[in-house]
């Protein structure tokens, strides 16, 4: 079975759903000596399978695949206790608030479907039939039966955690490593219950605490932009470090050009954590949409994500960064429009200049 310690350079290209993660980015991470992750979220099983096959070929089968655990799945730790009519009413209320946005972008808002599982069962079935070296989960824990079956086919399981309680649950569930996501991370927080406020403990403090709690390898994620960041996280107990925002502007990243440009434009000077786009807490560049709607959305994922999808798609078509979810971590100023293999290799050299060149 693959282990994190097999990596020549313990750096991972983070799974980034919605376009940024591509087979080319995975291949670049593998060529640098690290590991690239594909993001299966928001994709059909067919799209996921096609991307895996291309990435397998380009990376000599050195890849991981990341899945969202749906809250609607019985037995997942992501299951939200909040539900029923009250939740539906709060989603409908936010839908009314978003009517002005729908008019601005000339789109119709859909009727949300809380039962949508993003093809989770079919994706797991594919990964059991055609195993990949590593599968990671976010937004909750996979059911024990899924853990057992993925282990049976030789897959390494990484479970995302954002605090010590989630880490204990992930260890008990049978994780082979933990992806420890700190508060500076770009994109969605992996917090198991969507309606909980994500932890604010610094990533180094969280790693130090978790290193006392488990011997499993810890993959640190969130806010990494420099070699000094990598060294600090390794010193705090990380076995590997995961890079998201730093890779968003690379040519291999499939992020929208509007998103890439916004990161570099200087027009956006900070990031915020908001539920406005999806109902789950996520960090992005503070743009008009966040300024106008932060605090209005209920903690209802996937419904809010479904509601804003046509708005985000229309903003993307119009090249309007102020209506897009410009996901980014606090280190966004470090993201560079240079080949991903170079960005990863240079980050490692910057962290450990004394080591022989790889
Ligand atoms: C655009 C974007 C999309 C993301 N999508 C996912 C995802 O699909 N699954 C996941 O586990 N994490 C996702 N994340 C979080 C990353 O895996 C990682 O934890 C985060 O990028 C680390 O913080 P950084 O961006 O500051 O490096 C996403 C992050 C970004 C920026």
From TrEMBL:
Keyword vocabulary terms for this entry: Detoxification, Flavoprotein, FMN, Monooxygenase, Oxidoreductase
GO MF annotations, alphabetized: nitronate monooxygenase activity; oxidoreductase activity, acting on the CH-CH group of donors
CDD domains reported for this sequence: NPD_like (cd04730)
GO biological process, alphabetically ordered: 'de novo' pyrimidine nucleobase biosynthetic process; response to toxic substance
SUPFAM superfamilies attached to this UniProt entry: Inosine monophosphate dehydrogenase (IMPDH)
Catalysed transformations (reactions): 3 propionate 3-nitronate + 3 O2 + H2O = 3 3-oxopropanoate + 2 nitrate + nitrite + H2O2 + 3 H(+)
Keyword Iron included in the entry's annotation: no
Cofactor: FMN
Top-level division of the source organism's lineage: Bacteria
Entry similarity comment: Belongs to the nitronate monooxygenase family. NMO class I subfamily.
Listed name of the protein: Propionate 3-nitronate monooxygenase
């Amino acid at each position: 079975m693959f282990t994190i310690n097999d990596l020549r350079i313990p750096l991972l290209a983070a799974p980034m759903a919605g376009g940024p993660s591509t087979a080319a980015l995975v291949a670049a991470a593998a060529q640098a000596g690290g590991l690239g992750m594909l993001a299966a979220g928001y994709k059909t099983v067919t799209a996921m399978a096609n991307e895996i096959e291309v990435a397998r070929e380009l990376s000599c089968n050195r890849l991981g695949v990341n899945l969202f655990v749906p809250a609607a799945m019985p037995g997942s730790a992501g299951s939200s206790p909040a539900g029923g009519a009250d939740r539906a009413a709060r989603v409908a209320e936010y839908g009314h608030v978003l009517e002005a946005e729908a008019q601005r972008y000339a789109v119709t808002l859909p009727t949300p479907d809380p039962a949508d599982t993003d093809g989770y069962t079919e994706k797991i079935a594919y990964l059991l039939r055609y195993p990949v070296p590593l599968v990671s989960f976010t937004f909750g824990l996979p059911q024990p039966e899924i853990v057992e079956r993925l282990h049976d086919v030789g897959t390494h399981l990484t479970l995302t955690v954002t605090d010590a309680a989630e880490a204990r649950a992930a260890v008990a569930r049978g994780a082979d490593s933990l992806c420890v996501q700190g508060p500076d991370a770009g994109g969605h927080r992996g917090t198991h219950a969507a309606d909980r406020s994500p932890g604010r403990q610094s990533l180094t403090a969280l790693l130090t605490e978790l290193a006392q709690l488990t011997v499993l390898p810890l993959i640190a994620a969130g806010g990494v932009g420099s070699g000094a960041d990598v060294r600090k996280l390794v010193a705090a107990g990380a076995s590997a470090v995961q890079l998201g925002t730093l890779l968003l502007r690379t040519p291999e990243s499939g992020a929208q050009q509007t998103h890439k440009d916004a990161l570099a434009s200087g027009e956006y000077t900070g990031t915020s954590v908001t539920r406005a786009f999806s109902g789950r807490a996520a960090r992005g560049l503070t743009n008009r949409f966040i300024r106008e709607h932060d605090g209005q959305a209920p903690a209802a994922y996937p419904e809010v994500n479904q509601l804003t999808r046509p708005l985000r798609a229309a903003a993307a078509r119009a090249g309007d960064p102020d209506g897009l979810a410009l996901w980014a971590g606090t280190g966004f100023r470090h993201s560079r429009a240079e080949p991903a293999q170079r960005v990863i290799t240079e980050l490692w050299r910057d962290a450990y200049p004394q080591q022989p060149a790889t």
